[in-house]
Amino acid sequence: MKSEVILLGHGSGGKLSHEMLDELIVPLLSGLEPRDQNDAAVLPHVAGRLAFTTDSYVVEPLFFPGGNIGDLAIHGTVNDLAMTGAMPLVISVGLIIEEGLPIRSFREILVSMRSAADKAGVKIVTGDTKVVPRGKADKLFINTTGIGVIPEHLEITGSNAQSGDKILINGTIGDHGMAVLASREGLELTSDIITDSAPLNGMVQELVLSLGHHLHVLRDPTRGGVATTLKEISRQSQVEITVHESELPINPAVASACAILGLDPLFVANEGKLLAFVSAEVAEQALMIMQGHMYGGQAAIIGEVTSGANGKVRLHTSVGGVRAIEMLAGEQLPRIC
Amino acid sequence: MKSEVILLGHGSGGKLSHEMLDELIVPLLSGLEPRDQNDAAVLPHVAGRLAFTTDSYVVEPLFFPGGNIGDLAIHGTVNDLAMTGAMPLVISVGLIIEEGLPIRSFREILVSMRSAADKAGVKIVTGDTKVVPRGKADKLFINTTGIGVIPEHLEITGSNAQSGDKILINGTIGDHGMAVLASREGLELTSDIITDSAPLNGMVQELVLSLGHHLHVLRDPTRGGVATTLKEISRQSQVEITVHESELPINPAVASACAILGLDPLFVANEGKLLAFVSAEVAEQALMIMQGHMYGGQAAIIGEVTSGANGKVRLHTSVGGVRAIEMLAGEQLPRIC
Question: What does each C-alpha distance from B76 to A40, B92, B223, B264, B274 come to in angstroms?
Fold first, then answer.
């Protein structure tokens, strides 16, 4: 690449576009030979139901403690697939680049994407790149869309929470949102906070294999945090959910930062966490599986599905009170993913 | 929706987000019940190889003669799937919205997307919505990613152009790019120019059924136009391509506008055209299929694959000369898709 920044011409479809694809994007993301580059990828026959999910990433800043928009975009889509019980197979990458983005940053992000994909065992097989003039986007937006294959007989869905289910989380809450916030200009929070962004498909595979149909709901509490995600599930399944604040794992640095800023960590985004609803009889087994996993050391049972088909979420607070959890109206922290 | 414009909170994942999803986006795009809304869609088993493609749309302005960013985004991805010979099945929609976008425009675009998807026979099954602050995007960007199923034994790819193949196009060139340009502020071109944006999967199905393995390459000449697309194919297949300028169908209004602006229509984007490389013995049959189709009335045989394994494209001009076609370095017309 001759230029040090992305130029409008890199999005033209002409020589500069092909140079960027051939020298930078394709070798780093997929390694596909030019001869094999068509507008669509061809995938071998897949035996089983497919999971299909899309997410666009607009996080600001592009780089934050523990990650960047690139690995975040891979983990996010891998996790959305995994939350159906699927094994992620392939991912597409759509890039919208603001003219002027330094090639050096861009390259670093692409390298992170490939590394995250390799670790999660998914292949980046197709993509698209657009460039818009300065001021018409904010540096870089990334869309990732994924396909996974769902094992037979699984029925993991937000509408499958059942009375008596135990609710588990695989670790501390609020790390990602606070890491992004901490890295924004002008905020000087403790440096102990790093994103939890991670691929959860490995852990999900273990849960699926061991628990089978006792695994009822999986969802990753991203935008809106644990509180909003629980509220969504309570509505979808028309059940009542009770959560115990004292059981919620939280990094003390995140707790302090939230206290200082007046934020509720229950509503702060996570990018390497899942909520699992499982039959009570396998809850301890699920906990042990999570705790034995590299992304689940601090896993905990945080609540249960209680009687009442009312779509409510009740939080038993550390000081002995009970409060109803509702979704926030708008933004607590904009652009965290 | 209470607000008349998109607010930052509509991208928060909280109440406003859910309101926008439940009242606007999901009913218009997919009609999925809230109970069935998970982060990933679950698709039934698909028998056959899959085609998988992604595209982001950043066209400016959002509305142009004959279409808008919404139907363009559906047609573009349907067409990229069809260019493998695939029957498009499902599409995901990733929306990045700039705060302040009028809900009225947004609704109109969503309605167009659904209508385009219905006409093309594909379902919008999953999506994602992000909102960024004013000045951080340009009104609306749309990513569409699609899955299709490829009939057995087909091998339609850019590397399959063969010596002796005839090259067909299904109609006039340059309409989309010039329609977008004409609709930009300050340009007063003739109103006879409208986009050719259209779904080509129906025509491709007919070609596939009738021509089978005689159909070697299909590609839609979007960014970079017919010239760039032919150059890509000549390189991928390592063949020489000859095109006859006098055979290229062109709308006279597009030709005049290009002449006035100093643009070469061969490099102007199309969004409802395909180039087909077929065995010489079925060329007339292919032409008749195209001409009998609603999007192929002006189809023509425009060239052939000649001897020489050199990756060159030669244009026989209307005045009797021959010129080599190379890709342009950068942008002829930025942001036409």
Answer: 11, 13, 11, 22, 11
